[in-house]
Structure to design on (199 residues):
């Protein structure tokens, strides 16, 4: 399956994310950074170019592992001081264990049934699972042209995902995990919703 341009080039990826989030670009990462203590171990699923690590967690001396389908992104993680592994998260393989398992803006790739990936994250986490997922999306726009562009340019290599979460559908999904939810809040100017689950 062909990967869109933004998932093939780290610079293009970063530029698009900055354009989409504007002044909230850093806030989306800082919300996760604040939850991870100094020296913790972290596995970052669908890590992309590992911006969370290189700009927000590396100074905390975390033991970082980034998992992604893109071997180009993964290769750069080692150069930055972390570990990277090429990983197909659709495969039913146990995830590496860590104190914190994190996924930012990628849960929609597992629709219509994201439960199995959350379950594998919970099985591998020693402390918490942190999910930050967009709930306001161009790809879900009522404007068909904008929606088509959003879907086409966010294909990570596993096919175009026509569906995205809204705040209501994300809340509905996480009701099944209610006993484990220790925090939920809107972040990045209301563009993403953060869920923290206890291991």
């Amino acid at each position: 399956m062909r990967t869109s341009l933004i998932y093939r080039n780290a610079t293009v990826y970063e530029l698009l994310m900055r354009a989409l989030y504007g002044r909230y670009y850093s806030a989306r990462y800082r919300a996760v950074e604040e939850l991870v203590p100094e020296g913790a171990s972290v596995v970052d699923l669908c890590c992309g170019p590992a911006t969370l690590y290189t700009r927000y967690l590396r100074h905390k001396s975390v033991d970082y592992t980034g998992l992604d389908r893109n071997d180009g992104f993964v290769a750069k993680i080692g150069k930055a001081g972390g570990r990277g592994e090429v990983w197909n998260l659709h495969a039913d393989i146990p995830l590496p264990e860590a104190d914190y398992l994190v996924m930012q803006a990628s849960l929609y790739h597992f629709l219509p049934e994201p439960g199995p990936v959350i379950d594998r994250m919970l099985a591998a986490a020693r402390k918490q699972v942190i999910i930050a997922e967009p709930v306001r999306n161009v790809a879900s726009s009522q404007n068909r042209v904008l929606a088509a562009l959003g879907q086409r340019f966010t294909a990570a290599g596993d096919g175009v995902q026509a569906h995205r979460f809204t705040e209501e559908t994300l809340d509905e999904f996480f009701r099944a995990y209610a006993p484990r939810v220790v925090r939920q809040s809107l972040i990045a100017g209301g563009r993403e919703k953060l869920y923290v689950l206890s291991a």
